[in-house]
Amino acid sequence: MTVPVQAVHVDSPTETRNLRTKDIDLMSTAGILGAINAEDRTVPGAVAAVLPQVAHAVDYAVDAIRGGGRVHYVGAGTSGRLATLDAAELVPTFNVPGDWFIAHHAGGERALRQAVENAEDDSAAGAAEMAAMVQPGDFVLGLTASGRTPYVLGALAAAARQGARTGLVSGNAKAAKPAGVDVLIAVDTGPEVIAGSTRMKAGTAQKMILTSFSTATMIKLGRTYSNLMVSMRATNAKLRGRTIRILQEATGMTMADCSDALTEAGGDLKVALVHLLSGEDVKSASKALHASGGHVRKALDTLRVRAS
Among 14, 131, 215, 224, which has the highest number of CB atoms less than 10 A from its own CB? Predict the structure, then answer.
């Protein structure tokens, strides 16, 4: 049974012709690249205009994960592939559990490499996937250049019924906010260089939003200290070298001191960092980190208060 979703009849700006590139097929190679680059330079401004909405989505994601829930990405085509890439990169970058961010792509894994006919038009498939995997308290972020992809809208409607908060990243600023969506991030990148080729400006905007969204979520969850990646464990020689360099950068201490601290901390960079910065023993540093939910600065504040 197909789940009813809000009908959207507004043509997407990404499907209209770009008057600035009508003669792109007559340009030189350098001219073509220049025209593409000129259009690409408009994307950061369009993304900047929707940052307040992205901030709401970040707060929803942080609440979900702190509450034991998960973040789900839902997309089709370029949108789904970008979402899958973003979710995959969070595990090695921030050492997070693999189920914190889950990507759902219309047509499944095969559609990541080749088009699957009618997959994005199947609202029931999107709804079924959410019904099977989404729990109350999760946050579900849909992505669609047109703002009306049935698979995505069906998934968001079902997720809302499951008790999850929902958001939609849309490339169609003229489309109405779908019923039940908590935050709409409608970024206006205008007509594409090649009409309808949403892997261009619309895709770039989605990539920028996803990267900002997930990185800000990780920062809020304490997966960094300052602008350093500290949520990692030294499980091999390469990573041990990287963690020692990070410890040196964060503390100003010698390589020998940082190496000793890392060994004492069992390869846990955060524990070693709090130990070095606070002067407390490794056991106290580990306890303070655990009590602070893994936030280095909060752990240091706790230890300083105790010391005073």
Answer: 14
Q: Is residue 120 annotated as part of the catalytic site, yes or no?
A: yes
User: Does 89 qualify as catalytic in the annotation?
Assistant: yes
Contacts of 178 (CB under 8 A, 6+ apart): 5, 6, 8, 153, 156, 157, 168, 184
Which of 109, 117, 120, 264 is labelled catalytic?
A: 120
Tell me how long the chain is. Answer: 308
Q: Of 133, 132, 81, nearest to 105 (Cα)?
A: 81
Q: What is the mean pLDDT of each run of 10 residues along the chain (308 residues)?
A: 43 90 97 98 98 98 97 95 95 91 90 76 92 97 93 96 97 89 96 94 97 98 95 81 94 96 93 96 96 95 79
The domain over range 13-220 is classified in CATH as 3.40.50.720: no
Contact 82, 74 (CB under 8 A): no
Q: Which of 15, 39, 89, 129 is catalytic?
A: 89
Any idea which architecture 224-307 has in CATH?
Orthogonal Bundle (1.10)
